[in-house]
Amino acid sequence: MLSGSMYIKQDIYLLVQLLINAVMHEKYKALSPENNIVYPGLPDAFFLFAFKAAVIMKRDKPVRKRVVEVVVISDVHLGTYGCHARELLAYLKSIKPKKIILNGDIIDIWQFSKSYWPTAHMQVVKYLMGLIAKGVKVTYITGNHDEMLRKFVGFKLGSFGIQNKLVLELDGRKAWIFHGDVFDVTMQHSKWLARLGAEGYDLLILLNRLVNFICRKLNRNKVSFSKSIKNRVKSAVKFINDFEQVCADLAIENKFQYVICGHIHQPEIRKITTSQGEVTYLNSGDWVENLTSLEYYDGQWHLYKYHEDTTQLGLFPEEAVTETLDSNALLLNLVAEFNLKPA
Fold this sequence. Notes:
Layout: H1 4-24, H2 44-60, E1 66-73, H3 85-93, E2 95-103, H4 119-133, E3 137-141, E4 156-157, E5 160-163, E6 165-170, E7 173-178, H5 185-189, H6 191-217, H7 225-232, H8 234-253, E8 258-261, E9 268-274, E10 277-283, E11 292-297, E12 300-305, H9 327-337
Parallel strand pairs: 1-2, 2-3, 3-5, 7-8, 8-10
Antiparallel strand pairs: 1-11, 4-5, 6-7, 9-10, 11-12
């Protein structure tokens, strides 16, 4: 396999060759690029190779990682079609966290299928395991889609642990962290309805990605079906508001300064004031639609938005098809890892 530097050399050679041909071309007109004027004699391949070389150079250039004291990530839903695992991996590689809180629904056990486990999803798991091996403290807080892990609450191995909730003290202020499904009425009384809703949501996200793939080809703006539904349906808006209020009321009652949740896929940082006091409500969002996380540094919380991160823009355009690993490919990878010769 060719290395990144070899690709760059090939692309630069082709770029030079194309430039020479373009300059020698009689119809070529060197006009100002600032005016967005077309270069008639310049082959379309020039722009393709120029973009490709720029992306490779950007990818191979060492990036200085941002130091983050605490990062909270939730609702990744690994193992589902809606999960943006490649973007999450790129984000994790761009930061240097001292502590990682995985706040529920990281692996979607509800919808887990051995027939769908893309390479990128495995890379996220392996990268997190690598951080744990390096001593980075990682706490996995259980959610509803990974509720089976609640059987292992209290489990600890090195810098890794599984909990239902967590209390952190940050610069003299206490943060109460939990997934939030405990306040979801459907989870308490109609779990079958919640599971059915999860199946429908995953199908909606898959359809949405297909539509956005077509929109991108037609140079149209992306659309979000689920966001439109959440914002327009009064019951959905009321559910979100009630969820946030309940979390805030309990946090104030228990003398916490921060309450941090996931579950509802609505990234947020805002102060909520009641007659009993005040608390900062935070929601880490998700890596299905919003691609957000919570970061704590310089003494305060920040809401990270992948789509607004200029260092990540354009790395992973919307794709209709995702590479998956079947059982044979997984076995071959295992054989290669042990340096064995296949039979």
